[in-house]
Amino acid sequence: MSDEEQHFESKADAGASKTYPQQAGTIRKNGYIVIKNRPCKVVEVSTSKTGKHGHAKCHFVAIDIFNGKKLEDIVPSSHNCDVPHVNRTDYQLIDISEDGFVSLLTENGNTKDDLRLPTDDSLLSQIKDGFGEGKDLVVTVMSSMGEEQICALKDVGPK
């Protein structure tokens, strides 16, 4: 054994998984599922009967929760699918910068400055108009699988 110290570089996070397994047959409409490594909200589920080649299959039609793209997947109903952990957090809007980033106030009084304005045009105009009118706005941020995006807006009255 040598006297040298060994240093190991850790590339893992704190062990909090981005997804959890769930049996395909138990995933329902309005639930969440990972298709092609993207977190999606299920809009349609159809299950085929067990055929001569084994398992009943679930056909999922889902919409990516961040970019709105429609994705489909077919999985045997007895197999496990990845289901993303989806969190929604409300923040108070403090400022909108020139380059499209927003400044948000967290519950503990710190600011969160790493989020862009949403790409959804109607939500974007609601945020910009409300902020321009000096309204007190609370935005809902949806986060899943390492991504975050503003998904809703609440007007809590004038400042």
Automatic annotation (TrEMBL):
Residues 1-12 have a biased composition (Basic and acidic residues). It comes from the Eukaryota. The keyword Methyltransferase does not apply. eIF-5A seems to be the only eukaryotic protein to have a hypusine residue which is a post-translational modification of a lysine by the addition of a butylamino group. Belongs to the eIF-5A family. NCBIfam families: eIF_5A. This is Eukaryotic translation initiation factor 5A. The lineage of its organism: Eukaryota, Viridiplantae, Streptophyta, Embryophyta, Tracheophyta.
